[in-house]
Amino acid sequence: MTTTSAPRSPAVRTPPVRWPVAIGVAAERAGVSARMVRHYESLGLLPGVSRTDSGYRQYNEADVHTLRFIRRSRDLGFSMEEIATLLGLWKDKERASAEVKKVAQAHILNLSERIVAMQDIQRSLQTLVHCCHGDERPDCPILEELASEQIAHPRSHSEPAP
């Protein structure tokens, strides 16, 4: 009695690359668009990219690694300024990890403040939706609020609820 096994699916492999590579290949390998690569270069996050005699950008493995670092940092919500700081720390092998932790802790604080502000916005919208009849009547408190001349100030988390 012979047993047959399901055919194996080929392992997903990234094709071998001959370095340096063009912007499209670098972007694909880093998981970003070519447009973002150019943007990061313009901000100085990816300095010193070489060019061919024809003026085309060429990227080496270290450049692609840097692009991945930037992408992961963006995925975690770091600002471009914070990413520039983190890149400098990453490339400085003599840096103290306390500096990196300080940047991350400041980012966490910023995220917490943004979460509170978003929760305030959510509560305001929920109140407006609750007040809107959502029927055939033309009056709508949501539109009235959006059209009001009153400047909406999200209350801080230290202020008491109305």
Compact overview of the structure:
It contains six helices and two strands; from the N terminus they run H-H-E-E-H-H-H-H. The protein has helices spanning 23-30, 34-42, 61-75, 80-91, 97-131, 141-147, and strands spanning 50-51, 57-58.
Describe the fold and architecture:
The protein has 2 domains: 18-78, Multidrug-efflux Transporter Regulator, Chain: A, Domain 2, CATH 1.10.1660; 96-162. Helix 1 (23-30) crosses helix 3 and helix 4 (80-91) runs antiparallel to helix 5 (97-131). The protein is mainly alpha-helical. The longest helix has 35 residues, at 97-131. The N and C termini lie far apart (78 Å). It has a two-stranded antiparallel ribbon with strand order 1-2. A hairpin with a 5-residue loop joins strand 1 and strand 2. It contains 6 helices and 2 strands; from the N terminus they run ααββαααα.
Blueprint of the fold:
Elements: H1 23-30, H2 34-42, E1 50-51, E2 57-58, H3 61-75, H4 80-91, H5 97-131, H6 141-147
Antiparallel strand pairs: 1-2
Helix pairs in contact: 1-3, 4-5
Subcellular location: Cytoplasm
GO molecular function, one term: DNA binding
Main location: cytoplasm
Q: How are helices and strands ordered from N to C?
A: HHEEHHHH
Arithmetic mean pLDDT? 90
**Lateral strand order in the biggest sheet:** 1-2
Number of helices: 6
* Helix content range: 40-55%
Subcellular location: Cytoplasm
Keywords: Cytoplasm, DNA-binding, Transcription, Transcription regulation
Pfam families: MerR, MerR-DNA-bind
GO molecular function: copper ion binding; DNA binding; DNA-binding transcription factor activity
